[in-house]
Amino acid sequence: MGAALSPNFGExxxxxxxxxxxxxxxxxxxxxxxxERLCDPLAEVSAHYLISEAGDVLALVPExxxxxxxxxxxxxxxxxxxxxxIGIELANDGLQPFAAPQMTALEFLLGGIxxxxxxxxxxxxxxxxxxxxxxGDPGARFDWRxxxxxxxxxxxxxxxxxxxxxxxxxxxxxxxxPEVPLDVLxxxxxLRFRPWGVGPLDAVDMGIMRDLAxxxxxxxxxxxP
Length: 225
Known about the structure:
By secondary structure, the chain is α/β, with parallel strands linked by helices. The protein is 34% helix and 13% strand. Strands 1-5-4-7-3-8 form a 6-stranded mixed β-sheet, sandwiched between helices. The chain has a two-stranded antiparallel ribbon with strand order 2-6.
């Protein structure tokens, strides 16, 4: 694993340990350009890791430190996502499939992080999950199902359920999504679990959220600050 330390980090507020992993894409023309930005003190952004298309893993910020990758957003009751999370940037413009070496490297890295910090797979999320109104990464081309098969994330076990907007929003909140308008929420849920989905809320979307809320309620283990 290569190392290139970014100056853009601080202490985790309240001395908390990471209990969440957030995945991003860089949306930049190259991994080198992303590395330069993540290490630029004027940019005031960073992540703990950057993974190139070739599968090179660059460690930018120590895991015990607070990287500046999530920005405004929330997951369940948690609002200071940066203090509670480890951020991983994947070199990708958001339009291309994620390269096989990159995904293999991500799986290896994630396995270590989840074991070191006792993070359950349901707490591996995308930037678009915690900030659905303003973020779309890691995007529709990211293979969440692959991570779930490896035990590194989760995937819904769906049965169609009658579409109900209020119930859909309530289930999404129980799973962890912020309170946002229905169209924004539906776009975020589909981006991760059903990127081919189109049209208004339907029975498949409803089944996805009911299952996730039932099996993985975000704050079942206690409310986090």
